[in-house]
Amino acid sequence: MSNKKLSYFEVKRPVSRYLSWALGFFLLFQGIVELGDFVGLARVSSGPLVYGLSRITQSGVGHFLLSLVTTGLLVSIYDCFRRSLFKAKSVISYLVLAIMTLMVCDFLVGLGTVGSTDIMQQLQSPTRFDSFAVRFKNTSAAFQSILAVIMSIALVWKYRGRIALYGWVNLASMIISGLGVGSLYMFLMNHNVDFLNRGLSLAWTVFRYVIEIFPVVFLRRTLIYKQIKDSDEHGDI
User: Which of the 8 DSSP states describes residue 24?
Assistant: First the structure.
């Protein structure tokens, strides 16, 4: 089958089950990360649940563990996609590999900040390594964005159906995240909108969470178990 006619990649049943579980746990733990950012540094009077969530997400060790889980799950999903592309003899698999490598490097650089017990302490009194880590992650994020744009365009160009749809969704999410969200943030800041407003802050957190998980959900949809491929045989999505 020609690469241009592929609309999905076939995977075995164990892989499909793993991907479903991995996606579910990724959505869960990424949600915890976003909730932690929303809660911030809570006091004991906020209640045991809110205070516990704050202590976990705002501490260096807690942030490291959450990064370990979310990065590991996301990289494993990407790797299944990369393997499928490699089996299809597509050079796009090397772009995916490069993105995965940068993700792992981001995590490894973050290991140097685990010793700090408070994220706010890192921001207020950064060490030389903390400053290096920030610069590295910013540079890595820029390269990942460039590679992701090239990958998405290539997927839209070479494939159809679920694979092409993932490319479109990934492109749209990056545009909204990079341009739309930034422009909206600057607009609200210029109009003196108070981000401490809980309703606006929660809406912002939910919006950012949706933008982050949407591409991963559609990435999962490109990898299907062979027994259900027949229902997709004559449909692009």
Answer: H
Instruction: Please give the Cα distance from 151 to 129 (Å, whole number).
Output: 32
d(CA 46, CA 48): 7
Place of tokens 């089996």: 87
User: CA of 125: how far to CAs of 134, 188, 201, in Å?
Assistant: 13, 29, 26
Kindly list the domain boundaries of the chain, sorted by start residue: 8-229
Quick one: how many helices (H) and strands (E) in the chain?
Answer: 9, 2
**How far is Cα 116 from Cα 59, in angstroms, rounded to an integer?**
8
Q: Do 96 and 49 touch, CB atoms closer than 8 A?
A: no
* DSSP state string for 90-134: -THHHHHHHHHHHHHHHHHHHGGGTT-S-HHHHHHS--HHHHHHH
Rounded to the nearest 5°, which phi and psi values hold at 22? -60, -45
pLDDT in tens, the chain (237 residues): 444 568 889 999 999 999 999 999 999 999 888 887 766 655 544 555 665 666 666 666 777 788 889 999 999 999 999 999 999 999 999 999 999 999 999 888 877 665 554 555 555 556 777 778 788 888 998 999 999 999 999 999 999 999 999 999 999 998 887 776 666 666 665 655 555 455 566 777 788 888 889 999 999 999 998 765 455 544 444
What's the one-letter identity of residue 10? E
**73-108: b or e for each residue (b if 16 or more CB lie within 10 Å)?**
bbbebbebbbbbbeebebebbebbbbbbebbeebbe
